[in-house]
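Anyone else keep sequences and structure tokens together like this?

Example one:
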Amino acid sequence: MADGKIFAGHAVRRLRRTTGLTQQAMAEALDISASYLNLIERNQRPLTAALMLRLGDRFDLDPRMLTADEPGGGADAMRRRLADPLFADLGIDRAELAEWLAAAPGGAEAFARAFDRLRDAGAGLAEEENGALAAVRRETERWRNHYPDLDAAAEALADELRLGAGDLYGAIVDRLRVKHQLAIRILPVDAMPDRLRRLDLHARQVQLSEMLDPASRTFQAAFQLAQLEARAEIEALVAGAAFGDRVAERLFRRTVTSYFAAALMMPYGRFLRACEATGYDLELLQRRFGAGFEMVAHRLTTLQRVGARGLPFFMIRIDRAGQASKRYAGASASPLVTAPGRCPLWNVHHAFDRPGEIVRQLVALEDGGRWFTLARTVRSQVRSPQGIRAEFAIGIGVAAEHAAAAVHARGVDLAGAAVPVGMGCRRCTRLDCPQRAEPPIGRALLLNDRERGLTPFMFAGD
């Protein structure tokens, strides 16, 4: 089980300033020395579990707030922004970045917002087109795709449903019928050709398409139950996001409702224990919880409960054109998820050549990070009236240093040779990549009629 140290100097400093305390006064309240508190505020010492409990007890602070609002998404996210070629000549190292985040968290957050806005504009994405999606993605990453209140509520409801029936789908159907006077009705595709789920309040029915497999049928029923029984927790999250945009609110509401439905199917405690007992075996987890591959992959990114953390996985879903329709970094802070582009050498693209098969790969990034990744294709169960059936590749991964606990990593030398990948050609500065499609941003092209390198785009190095 992976459990990283918590550095939250900016949050502790903000708390001290809002309460009007000096470092000496706050240190006395926490039973520590002023010099130790100073190190914590400068992110040179992590918060211990005992100290987090004292902060909660003596300052009425929710411990989740220590990690839920890091400026710019935290040090890893800020490093990814500063890796842009625009800042290549500045030489900002980790120590300098840590000092910046500790000393001026507001300024760091302002920089992050401005950089993200300009980056989106530079990518040719109009604000009215990507505003809602970008806002929801930022809110999801702010929570690191882990909502403790939803997990707790879903776990309690799952335990209650288990008392009545061993079959979760049957228990949900009974709950909807008895408590909410809603019946589940499976409709033929001819009657519902372009919908998977529909709520007919006049008929008091939740109508599901016959095309849904058992896992998806359970998920859709759980989604409906979440709308009815987790309304308070869901609306609290939506209100806390303060989007100021109805589309973003509705999209985020759907996102967290789906989270609750998945948590109901895969309750946190039981799911984490199964992960550790099976070595995060994706196929076994699918069967044990009656879930689909994509559902399990997504759930792996959420295992961040304080005191009961799982491996910090990320997840991404792409189509054959490389377009990402789902991206969850979770606690991994992996640039493979947040980067605007993807490398064709990463085998998440190759999964389309081996449909239904899990392919694995050890990759190395330009910043020295090493990641163990898995990829597999999934297909939509339904097709459009024109006969089109969607197909995606699901990529998940974990830092190589944590991957030894995963059964899929057996036989892989996690310290051995790794495939060098980048963040898309426009962000990658590797000089010797034969797969390069275009030069990186901010690097001058070098043209020589007497020579031909591995790539037609030779450019100035560091």
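And example two:
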Amino acid sequence: MEENFNMVAKTLFGFEDLLVKELKQLGAQDVKAGVRNVTFVGDKGFMYKANLALRTAIKILKPIKTFRVSNEEDLYKQVYNIKWEKYLKPTGSLAIDATVHSKHFTHSKFIALKTKDAIVDRFRDNGGVRPNVDLRFPDLKINVHIDRSVCTISLDSSGESLHRRGYKLATNIAPINEVLAAGLIMLSGWDGQSDFMDPMCGSGTMLAEAAMIACNIPPNLMRKEFAFERWQDWDVELFEKIEESLLKKTRDFHHKIYGYDKSPSAVHKAKENIKNAHLDEFISIKHEDFFKTQRPGEAQKLHMVFNPPYGERLDIQMEQFYKQIGDTLKQNYPNTDAWFITSNLEALKHVGLRPSRKIKLFNAKLESRLVKYEIYAGSKKAKFN
């Protein structure tokens, strides 16, 4: 039996409860929400599973030591005393990432450097050979987190952020982060039981994430590598067993997913990415200007989630643009639940519809709102009668 240990899954602000739910569904124990993170307990196989299957996690960390620290000397000693030879060969390579919220320590780069010195000195003192720093492909990625006077040293089991799923070959300007896209779709309550649309689909991220949610496909199957694959206790057989068990839980999808974009290059990129993700059988993408479209199909309710362009990235008349969103939904999209995220809180006033929900989130550093508009069938007919 593998032994259990504590882990931390990092996420975006506002997604903590989604991640708690995901972890519980996967079988994690002792799950607790923090701010932008969730702590839980599991074994090595569960760590592999969490990296493969979680949609709203950015990283999975394995804490190995927590201690109080008031100056650089304390930090150096405590780090030096960790048995690093358990985790790394003297000829191996390492990279250190530090985050600091403390009045004693103000510079995260300096903390990373001090940590590196302590690890390297321990190896040098014990045998003369020391590991090298490799920022791109280290054998061991170490995370240092200092909150006031508490320092936690963790091994980063993910490596590159988990939003890099591996299916995107092409992106357009300001593509939406995959973890953000998956979280928005999950917050909107979409469960694959209706048609789905992203009318401003850009490079297709929202469409790919929606298809994976609908089919229960693990989001990180296409990743080239996780950091734990370079660890000394890497168990490829266990990993393959976990992968296989997750693939057995995929399900059929009996509805349609539509993507529109008025930029021909965006449509081309989106099609490439969707094909690369092996999701093209579920998704149809067209070169269309949303403001000139009608709702496709007469199926039951249409579920729409999108990320309209905002001032930071495109030269558009905000008030007019948001008014057009409202008009198009009202006139051409009956029986639709439309959700979109925006950081332009002023422009929202011009949509001309009353949102039934508003959720505070952050898109990168920008404070944003995820809003929901319920467009009922019949209001248009009533007008003409």
